[in-house]
Amino acid sequence: MTFWFRRSTQVLMALGSLSLAAPAAAQDAAAAEELFNRGLADMGAGRYEAGCTALAESEQLDPQPGTLFTLAMCESRWGRVATAVTQLGNYLAWVERMSPAQKARQGHRPKVARDERERLASRVPRLSLALPAGAPPGTVVLRDGSPLGPASLGVALPVDPGEHRMSTRAPGGPPWEQRVTIAEGETKALMLEIQLAPAPDAPARPPAPDAPAQPPARATSPAGTQSQAPAAQKAPAAATAGKGFRTAAYVTGGLGVAGLVAGGVMGALVLGKRSVVSEHCGSAIRASNPKSCDATGLDAAQTGSTMALVSTVSFGVGLTALGAAAVLGLTAPGRAAPASPSGTMWLRGTVLQVGPSGTVLGAQGRF
Questions:
Q1: Last residue of a domain, one of 121, 143, 177
Q2: Mean of the per-residue pLDDT values of the chain
Q3: Which of 141, 148, 212, 263 is the 20 to 30 Å CA partner of 366?
Q4: In total, how many domains does the chain have?
């Protein structure tokens, strides 16, 4: 039978269960008694978290062996086996310091505590934490918010089952955090990580003093004449500009060829529409008015007119683009462009005539 009595009174002595305690302040003792009773009730109802919390506060206010024993049993039922084993050990150590008479008043609790501690010993999980090589001195290691000293690192320490939070912080560096879950009877080893402090920025170099202005270098020819050195440096720039001009000339020329092709295609289609008009207008349909056409003729005439316009525009654009390409190619840097008499170069193209015998193209320009 397990006894949960907290401290010695005449009634408890009659029941054979006593608790020894040092004198405590009256208000602390009263509060501790109330918390003990509440924790015992929660523990009996299976509310172990609330019950163990109340019992722990009672033990802090007024330490009593009976409270410590009850708290250890509550932790055991809650599943916090490592904490329970520690509390049971503390209780048994307290009992060992008692006189024979005081031990006798504890009844069966010491035996229950020893049996429970032996039953839980193999179920206590252990967790080993270590810092990586090269960790700077002064690195702080926390486990569940509590600091761990250097002697605790690398040792498989008992912990309660469940999730645990580890964090490290190197001097001047940001914090690093990791969570790990461990089960009953499990042993884990975890290599922690650290975030080093960022390297300080290199100091900015002062600006170099301004160098005195030097006259441009001159190259002396064998005949003794001098030439400006920068003139020789303009050659690469002129070559680059010439390459850009030639590229533009190729692109523009390609557009000109495409315009001529489009104009030729449209011109051929116009000829086809012209033959349709001849078959569906005037005398071909026996109309009194030579300009009269049926529906097919009217449609062919309108479509042919549109195509003729598109053909004219396409030829004009094509010829103009070809002329622009010629100008770009001739005026590219690095090539001498022939000068026109008036100093102005232009080119214009158009469709002069579209008829049964073909399409007549024309172009005018000055170079």
A1: 121
A2: 77
A3: 263
A4: 2
